[in-house]
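name: query_chain
kind: protein
chains: 1
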Amino acid sequence: MKKNLLSLLLLLPSITMAQEYLKQFPLHQQTQYFDFHFKRNPGRVAAVARFADGLVEVVNRDFFRADFDYPIRVLVLEDRATFQEFLRREFRVNDPPGFGIYLPPPHKLFATYEDSGLGTFAHEIMHPLVERNLKDRPIWAMESIPGFS
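structure:
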């Protein structure tokens, strides 16, 4: 018990500091399953938000129960270079991916950029849903199932 409490207390400053990144995103849109933070193009983000909620609904209806601690925070940056630099600076991701990334708890967020495409969103969001809801999956399923998205 004491060891778990100590671990949590050691993580708290980094979690609190990491929350400062939200100040960089002046625009916000909440949906049933996602919490979008972005800097521009609200119409484009609204379209992605509709797609995102629809994706979770389809997964729930046709594939498996997509239980999760919703909403999942989504950060949408302007372009690939800004996205990659943001990940290096704010989350210490040394080799950021080219399109999108899901950062598990304590962050519980998906980060991407405006032109990364809906396929990137679908792929990355499937990772935490598969991990959480398909406990007895084979190892290959963690990348293969999101690859079909």
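note: Residues 83 and 110 are 11 Å apart (CA to CA).
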